[in-house]
Amino acid sequence: MIPAPFDYYAPTSLAEALTLLQRHGDDAKILAGGHSLLPAMKLRLASPSVLIDINKVDELRGIKVNGTVEIGAMTTWSAIEHHAALAKACPAMADAVGLIGDIQVRNRGTIGGSLAHADPAADMPAVVLAVDAQIHVEGPNGPRAIAAADFFTDMLSTALEPGEIITSITFNSHGAGEGSAYAKFPHPASRYAIVGAAAYVKLENGQVTACRVAITGAGPKAERQPAVEQALIGTDGSADAVAAAAAHAGEGMDMLGDIHASEEYRRAMCKVYAKRALLKAIERAR
Amino acid sequence: MTATEMKERLVGRALKRREDPKLITGHGNYLDDIKLPGMLHIALVRSPHAHAKIVSIDASKALAMPGVVAVFTGKDMLDINPMPAAWQAAGVKNYPVPPRALAVDKVALVGDPVAMVVAENRYIARDAADAVEVEYEPLPAVVDARKAVEPGAPQIHEAAPNNIVFEWECGNKAAADAAIASAEVVVKEEIINQRLIPTPMETRGSIARYDATTGEWTVWMTSQAPHVHRLLLTAFVFGVPETKLRCIAPNVGGGFGQKIFCYNDMAFTMWAARKLGRPVKFVEDRSENYKYSTHGRDHITEAELAGTRDGKITGLRVKTWANIGAYFSTVAAGIPTTLYGRIITGVYKIPAAYVHVTGAYTNTAMVDAYRGAGRPEASYLIERMVDRFAAEIGMDPAEVRRKNYIQPEDFPYDNGLGLLPYDSGNYEPALNKALEIAGYAEFRKQQAELRKQGRYLGIGISSYVEICGIAPSAWMGGQGWGAGLWESANVRVHLTGKVVVTTGSLPHGQGLETTFAQIVADELGVPYEDVEVQWGDTQGTPFGYGTYGSRSLAVGGVAIKRSVDKIKEKARKLAAHLLEANEADIVFENGRAYVKGSPDKGKTIGELAAAAAVAYNLPPGMEPFLDETSYYDPPNCTFPFGTHVCIVEVDPETGHVKLLRYIAVDDCGNQINPLIVEGQIHGGIAQGLAQALYEGAVYNEDGQLLTGTLMDYAVPTAAMVPHIETDHTVTPSPVNPLGVKGAGEAGTIASAQCVMNAIIDALAPFGVKHLQMPATPERIWRAIHGK
Amino acid sequence: MTTITVTVNGVRYTSDVEPRLLLVHYLREHLNLTGTHIGCDTSQCGACVVHINGVSVKSCTMLAVQCDGAEITTIEGLAHNGQLHPLQEGFWEKHGLQCGFCTPGMIMAAADLLKRNPNPTEEEIRHGLEGNLCRCTGYENIVRAVRYAAEKMAAAQAAD
Known about the structure:
Chain A has helices at 14-24, 37-42, 77-81, 84-89, 91-97, 103-108, 111-117, 124-130, 148-151, 226-232, 239-246, 263-285, and strands spanning 7-9, 28-31, 50-53, 63-65, 68-72, 134-139, 142-147, 152-154, 157-158, 165-172, 178-186, 193-204, 207-216, 223-224. By secondary structure, chain A is an alpha+beta fold.
């Protein structure tokens, strides 16, 4: 219940935060919403000697929606949840965010913090993969953008280099004929995803012309489902076509297994939840 | 008020609780809210191994840290005895190995405390505990009760060969064997009643203060039974006079059984307070609570039920392995024996029944009473087996129940299992009412229709009877209980007419302050606001065994009523004297004593209390003051009952269960406060259905608790519990003058099998006959898909 | 040690705190506001919910230093001039509490819920209180208590 001691810094600008991060290196952890890090520190599963709290870095907050969506890394789930234009621009994100934790967790937790932590059971990694987001980061070598597809490298591991901080997430707003959805099998206690599936589709003249599906929770990291996507593209997006495509979900993925859901069961649920997310996304696209 | 004006009766009214104003404004006083001047804080060093020898403990780094006052190990505390084993299995040899304040030489579960750090604040204490270096020599572990008693299993305690705590039986083996051998139909099932973690929202802890000049302790504790803890800690653990300890239970944040027991922290805080001459506090973290405080249930059972093709049950044979955990907790052996085996046949007349129970030590947290304690295990077993039997013979499960119920004319009913006779009951009306609310017949049609569309709905029925107000002491003595089981109460009417009730009961959410005040206000005829109810401090309350087993109204409440009766009797005598009338002519009614036939000539209870207190004019030989104490030892237990019905829908693709309706019809005898009764039923149901659907403590083979935090142990949220529809029947208990039975555990005892029966009913088209709890989506999915 | 200034229930406090001090410990141990409880160590139970600048948070999952300059409301600050908040009244009227340990957090969470959704359905209440565990009530009367408060607050607003 009690974290080990640490030094605490609360920079007010990104530049200051980056300087601190560089100075303290591996001893430091960035404190965003804190809803993964602080519980781990209380159980002493993590004991960083320096915390750099970026909650006062206002430049990292905010949501802009026009043709593209830009979400500052320190934007809370709650701000995302209650942003009407964003919900329209990306229904999958709205689906997912309302299922994260609880109101209090959403009041503190941030999108950047969650992506950087890369919990295998977090919801948002599947969504950013499905909407093909760019994750913008800044570090000692300046800013760069990482495609969501390249971002999650392994369990709790990302393409972030030492000294880098996520600054924002961008992706295209859905246009006509585009739809997305997120379907989730929540863990009964933690409410993280046992399996979460995010789907994006584009329909043109009654045909699926683009499709991206990603699954979180089931494996060590969130992953795109190329076999599902390829099977669906070119079809009419009917229930049968979706079921046939979704049957490929989980292919080639390593599955996690625990007391709440075995590997075999998770694999089966990948198909069910991919199907459910796709059906909803298609309904929205029509 | 004249004698003809009836004061409005409060008993039976849904008054809102007088406990609440401080609790809703943040002014409750729970254990961790208490701060004493100079108080030190304890953090424990706990074993990461389930079973190991302690090779060495090096506290030098911890002791060098600023703010650390001391580090103690189990060997420092050999001057005190282990915790007592107060309820042993009746009539057989027990091998009790209760825990010590801190482990000595070896550890037997993950979380076993091996050292304690005492420091100026809890942050320093935690840091220092992490700095204590302990070397262990790990030993093989066993976590499953059936495996623990097999040859070759790791041996946990020298004093308990083969890890056996007891082997106990009840009923008639020969008759049960014969009934099964000759039966038309026998259904057999392995039934696992999984381990649960009680999870009161407040964890446990103790604060001890020692006065060296008098040799007296005061201990604040999260306790359901402070008088019992006072007795056990002094007479058994410390070997000092009982008068040297005052125990105080402040507001207690839920117990559900877990706070009945005498725990090591009570002893080590007392020991350290005496040693250091400063008050000390210990409060568990949630993960410590999960690892070390008691768990519940954990039975593996082989059950066989015999019957006829036309639905008569003829026999029941049960063999159970009960997991007791690493050590013997305070009343651990009584739960899977007396409170389980002796009520195994439930609401049914079963001519031949036999139960054999093996209690086993394992490298897991101690198992003891958890809400319902033995009775949920029993009613789960019988109600599952009855449904299993109904399915086997193709008969409606409601019909099978009707055919086998104990009938109203059978009461008092002796079930032949060594229990006292069931006091009263009328089971069929509760069933009928529940089925009617559910629209049973209509549902069956709808169910058949929906199945054709690939939708799987099911309905579950659970009829239960339980044992409450457990007594009398003479009978409990024969059940291996190491003390009495009466309750006491003192009632005083002060000079100003204000009434103070002190009770040995220990309400911790049950609303007894309100309930008791309702009874006293009615019986004495005084304003409700003039009655104050006090509890929780052994100094100032009469001895009581505490609040658990749904006993505080049926036993503690009756003790209060009897004290009031004595007050009224004395008041009548005094009134006769003051009114210069014959005592036989005095009527006491509505708070007023008057001469029969002359209602104008009378004295109010307030006037009589004042007269008794000033003592200017008392009858010869009468002592001053209206102040009476009663010790009430009931002649029998009470036996609440009822029927619950629930409707579920199963998603065949994922195995998820949706609870569509939950209907509870309970009979707890007379109700003093229906609002409180309903609340008890709601809460009980939530805990029972959580067992059916969500909860289960899981250890891996190495004895690591895999559900060690609320991240993994699924206590349901509001979104996981359905709307609950309640109704009741009223069959007063003939056992006590209030006609009450008890309501605290009924919901839990009724609900797990109600949900499971509904799920299994929904899965009938897939040929599913039984499922183990919790019925997780994966379990159901596997059952559907034959995996 | 770091110096922080916070306003809690309208009272300003300046304190020296260790950076690692959890907000819940600051409130309970430093300010003696023990109405805010601790029921778990993993941010699940919600017994510790308070409002920071009007938003509900779990005070066990925030550092006291993070609240420098903030306005904090705890259960002790919810009633005004001896007048119970409609939620406090609702919990009392509808028997929305038994042991009372979860109650402060539950009420503070419900207050945030009603601020966002003044007229929640039963389902919205149940979903909205997912961050708070109660082991006593089975939630049935908590739902009724929140509905009671919603109706009372709506009536009060209509009267204004």
